[in-house]
Amino acid sequence: NRNDTTARIAHVFRGTFVHSTPRAAVEILQNCVLGVDDKGKIAFIEKHQDVVSLLEIWGFETSDIKQLGQYEFLMPGMVDTHIHASQYSYAGTALDLPLLEWLNTYTFPVEAKYKDLDFANDVYTKVVRRTLKNGTTTACYFATIHTDASLLLGELADRFGQRALVGKVCMDCNSAVPQYKESPSECKEETDRFIKELLKKEYPNVKPVVTPRFAPSCSSSLLSELGEIANNNKLHVQSHISENKEEVELVKTLFPGCKSYTDVYLKHNLLTDRTIMAHGCHLTDEELEIFRETGSAVSHCPNSNISICSGMLNVRNVLNHKVKLGLGTDVAGGYSPSMLDAMRRTLDTSKALTIQDPQHKTLSFEEVFRLATLGGSEALSLDDQIGNFVVGKDFDALRVNVCVPDGPIDLFPGEGPKVILEKFLNLGDDRNITEVYMAGRRVVPFPDT
Ligand code: GUN
Ligand code: FE
Fold first, then answer.
1. For residue 1, what are the CA distances in angstroms to 4, 50, 55, 242, 319?
2. Considering only CA atoms, which of 260, 257, 293 is closest in space to residue 275?
């Protein structure tokens, strides 16, 4: 029964819905009806038989129902838990150096250019549009050290309709590019200004995230300041951890008083249940325990981990430790901005681990689907709001059609919805994502096309 008399129904879809629940990695709901209210929230999801009385209660015209075709389904929008918007300009190139050299040679010189707001506007417009088109309804972004360009990224996410956590990057140490770092006081003041100005905009779905680049880029006092800012304002924290072995060794020498890389962030109060740390390839079981205890999450970025030869995260082991885990593209260490690619690379890495050790229990495509949707929402502590189709959650969804003209997928007789899903995950691309919704608003196709 309806008790909220103020909300009205804005959309009703009928057909097949595919999502994850805590119990089932993939749940396929066939011949169902899903209603979205005018606040962008899921109002009901029911078997078809119940629809007539439901629509009567809601006063919704049956003729306005959006009927999905035989080869179509709705799935939750995908959550990219780690992507550098500022590195999108060189995605697909510069993958020939290991992390620390890669940062000084390619990354810092490019990120220094975001002082120029025209350059920032061009790249940030392109990355928001590209990722939205590929089904990323939520992105957790690194920008650069520049406050104004970072605010612009937030504005663009809001304008195009992408849910976003946006981080102004903080770094005061160890940059080989002299113009690309800040003084400790600048770092703190600009982070304060960034948070204040972004919150002042009151974008409903864009939030600031406190962003120390990673331990080697930050002094101990900067890390403490940032821990304090995050805790005082109950904000998210994002950074990198244990991505490659050389970096882990460097952190040992830079922070000799800390027991481990994880201990560095723990000692500076940066590990909370709103923290997400990218990579974690070389975390020990002891460190994973600390993640579990603090409620901190790992963002698994398999394309990047292979592309710049950082390592192979054992996702199964992270999940066995009950640590929250989502997937990330890590553009541009990862060359692809697509979360479909992140799912495929997650499966590849899991299979490579099985080749090395036949005892390793390979991830299934269903589990990887959950990581890209519900898992990502948990990793960002947004699972009360997004991640799957539950009444009361925001409607962030993709309309998928596996049978588009000249598309990448061929179907054969007798293939059911599970095979259709598996083919989309392995073979599909943005041509198959015909509509994208964020908080009930249709954001793809773009209004200008
Ligand atoms: N560690 C610190 N900064 C970065 C970055 O920009 N990309 C990756 N992959 N790792 C990092
Ligand atoms: Fe990264």
1. 9, 12, 11, 51, 38
2. 293
Strand partners, 437: 397, 442
Same domain, 363 and 431: no
Nearest protein Cα to ligand 1, atom 7: 333
Both tokens of 352, joined, read 């490579």
**Which of 349, 379, 409 is at the close of a domain?**
379
Domain span at residue 285 reads 78-379
Residues with Cβ within 5 Å of ion ligand 2?
A: 278, 330
Are 59 and 179 in a shared domain? no
pLDDT digits (tens, 9 = 90+) for 24-80: 999 999 999 999 999 999 999 998 776 777 777 778 888 889 999 999 999 999 999
Residues 242 and 308 in one domain: yes
With respect to residue 60, please indicate whether it lies within any of the assigned structural domains. Answer: yes
276's enclosing H/E stretch is strand 275-279
- Beta-bridged to residue 433, according to DSSP, are 400
Ligand 1 contacts (CB < 6 A) are 84, 99, 103, 107, 213-214, 240, 243, 304, 330, 333
Looking at the fold, whether 142 and 169 belong to one and the same domain comes out as: yes
Residue 182 clears pLDDT 70, i.e. is over it: yes
Tell me, yes or no, whether 156 lies in a domain: yes
What are the angstrom distances between the C-alpha of 240 and each of 136, 162, 312? 21, 23, 15
Please give the full DSSP string across 159-172, using - where no structure is assigned: HHT-EEEEE-EE--
Backbone angles phi, psi at 374, to 5 degrees: -60, -40
Alpha helices in 323-432 (DSSP H): 339-356, 365-370, 376-379, 417-427
Token representation of residue 221: 């006092």
Q: How many domains does the chain have?
A: 2
What backbone phi and psi angles, to 5 degrees, belong to 401?
A: -125, 110
Atom of ligand 1 nearest to the CA of 243: 10
Identify whether the C-beta of residue 9 lies closer than 8 Å to the C-beta of residue 66: no
